[in-house]
Amino acid sequence: MEDENPQPHAHPLETVGGTGVSIRPMTIDDIPAIFHLGEVLFTARIAPNAHRTWDEYEVVGFFQTDCEFCFVAEDENKGVIGFALGTIIEKHHSWTYGYLIWLGVRADYQQSGIAQRLFRHFKNAMIDAGARIIMVDTDAENHASLRFFRKMGFDHSRQHVYLTLNVDDDRRKHEERRKERIIRYTVDDHEKE
Fold first, then answer.
1. C-alpha angle with apex 83: 77 to 89, nearest 5 degrees?
2. What number does CATH give the domain 12-158?
3. What residues contact 106, with CB distance under 8 A and at least 6 apart?
4. Over the stretch 24-39, which tens digit does the pLDDT of each residue have?
5. Interatomic CA distance for residues 45 and 19, integer angstroms
6. What is this structure's pTM?
């Protein structure tokens, strides 16, 4: 996403809106680079909700099922510097929706127009696929993302509440009971001999 605090030593391409950076469809060879860039961007501190769901299977899954809606930004010298991953949702007797699920740009390229270029490619692919609405979600506290998406024309925001339940204590108790059962069965088996 766009960064609220641009890097003090901006990449030279930022001043010219990303000249030298190409946007292209994702390929199988991009999977590791996209995954590792996502690990840097979607940290627990910066993006806790995204962090919980970002993993290598996420990227592989998009490549396998929705590669026509997945794009990378590539610097001619530095490789993958950004990505957009999404899907199409077709509702029976309803409209077709595009869903931009992941959008990320390397920190030293943020504020350079790369995210806008990625989004435009994604949007065109959605239009070609017959989507009538494109959806996106972001954390309500991610003001940079909200500004970016509004700039891209998104409106009608709705609040969505995510709840969590920490079951770690329950998991420990369950594991202790399981160990007690194993010990009890083992002792009972030895006493029968």
1. 155
2. 3.40.630.30
3. 37, 40, 41, 81, 82
4. 999 999 999 999 999 9
5. 32
6. 0.73
